[in-house]
Design a protein that fits this description.
Elements lengths: L3 E6 L4 E5 H8 L12 E8 L5 E7 L7 E3 L2 E3 L2 H7 L9 E9 L7 H13 L6 E8 L4 E7 L4 E6 L3
Parallel strand pairs: 2-4, 7-8
Antiparallel strand pairs: 1-2, 1-10, 3-4, 3-7, 5-6, 8-9, 9-10
This protein binds zinc ion.
Length: 158
């Protein structure tokens, strides 16, 4: 199990994030001195009990995404580019990741954009995960339900 970082919510859901993913994402944090945000989609699987989630794969920024200081907007082309390439019978869309030039927290823009995505995601999880990585190595994980609730997760000592 130590290839994963474990997160728990107060509602007793568990998320396992593959350490490899965090390592790959963190490369975008120090890519340049401009601290342009990066982001993409998260794919993984859900256990039968629907209590645990495994983050297995992520997508990476493409040219049409908007990458600025303190701003990342995933383009429609991003979804189209990766659509059908990442999923298989087990692996499904679970949410979004992005980086921050400061620490990892939900900004008001993040809350707005994830609420819109959560409303649209009518898959079996009824919402989206938001994963944020800060340049100071902080990690934020929360789940936006399609009925506008935000469930926060906390990192566990494995
Ligand atoms: Zn953000």
């Amino acid at each position: 199990m130590n290839e994963y970082l474990k997160f728990k919510s107060t509602s007793d859901n568990t998320v396992y994030i593959k350490k490899r993913i965090l390592k790959d994402i963190s490369k975008f944090l120090c890519e340049d001195n401009l601290f342009l945000e990066a982001g993409g989609m998260i794919y993984g699987y859900i256990t039968k009990s629907k209590k645990s989630f495994y983050f297995e794969k992520v997508t990476y920024p493409i040219e049409t995404d908007i990458r600025e200081y303190s701003k990342f907007v995933r383009s429609i082309e991003h979804f189209n580019f990766y659509n059908g390439k990442v999923e298989d019978e087990e692996i499904t869309y679970l949410g979004e990741w992005h980086t921050h030039p400061c620490s990892a927290f939900l900004s008001s823009e993040d809350i707005k954009s994830h609420k819109i995505l959560a409303k649209k995601n009518e898959t079996e999880i009824n919402g989206v995960f938001a994963l944020i990585l800060g340049v100071d190595s902080s990690i934020h994980l929360s789940f936006f339900t399609s009925n506008k609730k935000i469930i926060e997760f906390e990192k566990m000592k494995n």
